[in-house]
């Protein structure tokens, strides 16, 4: 086996290992983010959105209620503001 073919084989192995490691890292980030609650689903289109998002990046749907009395954010699935108790409009 020539030196050139050895170098080519070594480079191929390194590229494959690098691609595998990047894929594993990306998968771990996705799983970790989901476990930590970083990702939610849009109630309108079910797209993944970050936990602190106020609007869906895919459809523009509202992710949180803004309380008309205190101005604080509350999740869409809540009927009353968790900060002041005001009934939230749907």
Distance between the termini: 72 Å
Relative helix content: 25-40%
What Rg is obtained from the alpha carbons, in whole angstroms? 23 Å
Can you tell me the residue ranges where pLDDT is under 50 for at least 5 consecutive residues? Answer: 34-38
Walk across the major sheet and give the strand order.
Answer: 1-2
Looking at how many chains there are and whether they match, the oligomeric state comes to: single chain
| Beta-strand content estimate | 5-15%
**Helices and strands, in N-to-C order?**
HEEEE
Main sheet properties: 2 strands, antiparallel
- According to DSSP, the number of beta strands is 4
Give the helix tally.
Answer: 1
Shape: rod-shaped
Mean pLDDT: 81
Structural category is alpha+beta
Question: What attributes characterize this protein structure?
Answer:
two-stranded antiparallel ribbon; alpha+beta; 13% strand; 4 strands
Helix and strand topology:
Layout: H1 3-35, E1 39-41, E2 48-50, E3 64-66, E4 73-75
Antiparallel strand pairs: 1-2, 3-4
Structural summary, described in words:
By secondary structure, this protein is an alpha+beta fold. It is built from 1 helix and 4 strands. It has one helix at residues 3-35; strands at 39-41, 48-50, 64-66, 73-75. The strands form 2 sheets. It has a two-stranded antiparallel sheet with strand order 1-2. The longest helix is centred in the N-terminal third of the chain and has 33 residues, at 3-35. Mean pLDDT is 81; it is low at 34-38.
């Amino acid at each position: 086996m020539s030196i050139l073919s050895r170098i080519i084989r070594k480079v191929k192995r390194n590229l494959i290992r690098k691609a595998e490691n990047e894929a594993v890292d990306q998968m771990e980030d996705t799983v970790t983010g989901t476990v930590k609650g970083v990702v939610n689903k849009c109630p309108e289109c079910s797209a993944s959105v970050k936990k602190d998002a106020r609007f869906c990046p895919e459809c523009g749907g509202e992710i949180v209620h803004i309380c008309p009395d205190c101005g604080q954010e509350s999740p869409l699935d809540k009927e009353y503001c968790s900060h002041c108790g005001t009934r939230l409009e749907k």
